[in-house]
Amino acid sequence: MRLVAITWLSCLRRHLQTKTRFLHTLKGPQSDQILMSPTLASLDLPDIWTPISPCHSIPAIHKSFNEQTARILDGKLMSAEIRSKIADQVRQMKKNVGKVPGLAVILVGQRRDSVTYVRNKIIACEEVGIKSVVTELPTDCADADVQNAVMKFNKDPSVHGILVQLPLPQHLDEEKLLDAVCLEKDVDGFHPINMGELALSGREPLFIPCTPKACIELLIRSGVKIAGKRAVVIGRSNIVGLPTSLLLQRHHATVTIVHAYTENPEQTTSEADIVVSAAGVPNLVRGNWIKSGATVIDVGTSPVKDSSCEDGYRLVGDVCFEEVIKVASVITPVPGGVGPMTVTMLLVNALDSAKRMLNYT
Amino acid sequence: MRLVAITWLSCLRRHLQTKTRFLHTLKGPQSDQILMSPTLASLDLPDIWTPISPCHSIPAIHKSFNEQTARILDGKLMSAEIRSKIADQVRQMKKNVGKVPGLAVILVGQRRDSVTYVRNKIIACEEVGIKSVVTELPTDCADADVQNAVMKFNKDPSVHGILVQLPLPQHLDEEKLLDAVCLEKDVDGFHPINMGELALSGREPLFIPCTPKACIELLIRSGVKIAGKRAVVIGRSNIVGLPTSLLLQRHHATVTIVHAYTENPEQTTSEADIVVSAAGVPNLVRGNWIKSGATVIDVGTSPVKDSSCEDGYRLVGDVCFEEVIKVASVITPVPGGVGPMTVTMLLVNALDSAKRMLNYT
């Protein structure tokens, strides 16, 4: 078993060396280039993690904690509590000003996971009384089709939140289309101004992206102290890893982002009091990655084939649950942890947006 | 001497506890509040570091490296090389299109350090042939006065870069005034859109803030490998700490930000291969904060009274130079390290801006 771990680490190291060589080729200055630093665009490389062996092949190294079991946070239960409060406020809003929050969703294509996520969001809206509308576009639609849909919702006063379900098909210009969403309705918080204002102290974005907001709410509701603690965020995606790191820092954690280019990710992660994993790699985070007593928030949701499930697949997290539960003090399950809370934060953002746009307090 | 260190650490710990209590008082949800997470604005607390004892009172713990001496990076020399290339390109531009880059500086009040910085920037512009213009306003001027100056330069086609010298007097609305600088002329890169695009992978800001850009250029020119390495940025200011951490991450370092709320900052810092200190606290970073062989970039420039100097004061960095030089492999001095390179990056940004605005390649 030890051999498996070593082999995997060697793979990761080789992978890193290859990527590093690639980086070096980017660095050579061109003749008319004043600086040696390359342009940022050329630095963007895919964060490819080497596939991980099945979860049970490496035992947790903290054998003395084999009997310990972490507290499992129930994202569904917390969501139900919050959604009940949202429903109350939506009812009050309807009674007082005759209006309810409106959420518009743009879905391009029929990716199975995207269809499921959109369906869950729509059901959640219905539950709390938020009006929702979905525009479905074919996979081969043009940028202009998506942009027109965005523009229509930008102008519609009954719509207080607009979300473009990601990922978009590769031929579409995601950057341009996300930028087209009017800032006041950007309930996903993906606009660069919202991200810049999340990063800058002394400023406040109109919206905090839903998954990072869900992670913080889970931590606070579970009584986990954030200020002063060491936090590791695994993965640096624009929609989860990056904004989660910025938000944890605003809560005064000492934050490190671990990514596919990190040397010894297990060592760095094992120093953290709080680990948020959002790499999208099943079973990446093993028992030996976690400090005894740490809090582990698992954002990963990778579909894995499973004929015993209704849809033919099940969702698995980044965290090897059976190993980590023996080491951590608090853990979120997949499914039923961050997922429902993320949808709930979307409802919160939509409600907040409607309040702001209707000048309703 | 050991006692001094322990006393200081106890102070820091007490200070942290006080601040943490304050944070807890912020956390209690109000009756109509749906989430337990506080608003971001209420999280903003000043990063106050406890004053540090003089540099020579705690010896470096790495006694075996007492004889080692780090390579000192010469920021002036590197700057001279880069400025010579800038001057060439400005001459070429003048010859080819009859225009030179133009930089406008707005200086409010007569803070001694700000006056010095502005003077250095103007001299540097003259050296390379960039046209510069300074608008000086009295300390008690109104927001509208600064805004008018910004607007005038926004419209002036001979101005390709605008910088508002910070810090502004407290009564002015820094956020509003920085946002007024037109994005295409924001050579300081402080606009939230520029910051958001620096943070988001797949995007590229029009300008990278000058000090972070200087740090990366220093590292690359010195042959220090960044990708995959552990980097610690000390301090999380909007103008240095935050963008430096984002930029190091875009260069694929594994980045941790250490701030005044970090527990055991010396422990976290001592794990880093690259340390960039931008706390503005003289002698904060001692020999025992640094891993043997690490690279140390000192961004701190605090004025300290010294009657033997011409101006009655001298600038000191965050790093206890005489201790750290025995442990690190590479170090920047203060003055003569990051300072001149920061001004040089301003020249690069102004030139790049002029090229972009004049469609000149």
Automatic annotation (TrEMBL), chains A, B:
Single GO term (MF): methenyltetrahydrofolate cyclohydrolase activity
Residues of the Tetrahydrofolate dehydrogenase/cyclohydrolase catalytic domain: 73-188
Domain Tetrahydrofolate dehydrogenase/cyclohydrolase NAD(P)-binding residue range list: 209-356
Any one of the GO CC terms: cytosol
Protein keywords: Hydrolase, Multifunctional enzyme, NADP, One-carbon metabolism, Oxidoreductase, Photorespiration
Residues annotated as transmembrane: none
This protein's record includes keyword NADP: yes
Pathway recorded for this protein: One-carbon metabolism; tetrahydrofolate interconversion
Family under the similarity heading: Belongs to the tetrahydrofolate dehydrogenase/cyclohydrolase family.
Main function: Catalyzes the oxidation of 5,10-methylenetetrahydrofolate to 5,10-methenyltetrahydrofolate and then the hydrolysis of 5,10-methenyltetrahydrofolate to 10-formyltetrahydrofolate.
Subunit structure as annotated in this protein's UniProt entry: Homodimer.
Protein name, entry field: Bifunctional protein FolD 1
Source organism of this protein record: Pisum sativum
Lineage of the species this protein comes from: Eukaryota, Viridiplantae, Streptophyta, Embryophyta, Tracheophyta
